[in-house]
Write a structure and sequence with these properties.
Blueprint (H helix, E strand, L loop, with lengths): L9 H13 L4 H15 L14 H16 L8 H9 L3
Amino acid sequence: MNTGVVQIDPALAAEAQTVLQKLGLTLTDAVNLFLREAVFEQALPFAVNAPDRFTEAELLEKHDRGVKEYREGRYVVKTMEELEAMARDGQ
């Protein structure tokens, strides 16, 4: 069935075809395999992780710890220029 709705970045498709060829698969085979697994699992067939997410309690704990460390003088204040220089110097 040609659905005519899937658009794939040509550069990505070319890279994927190189990898898939080593596995004995075509791009069509891989897409069909992905869709079969998604239907079977009723979910994506691989883990999708969100960036670090914190609960409200975790955020409050981090905030409180940060305030405590600031009050104890354990923070070092640097300008953006100083941070960029440190990055350039490999510090």
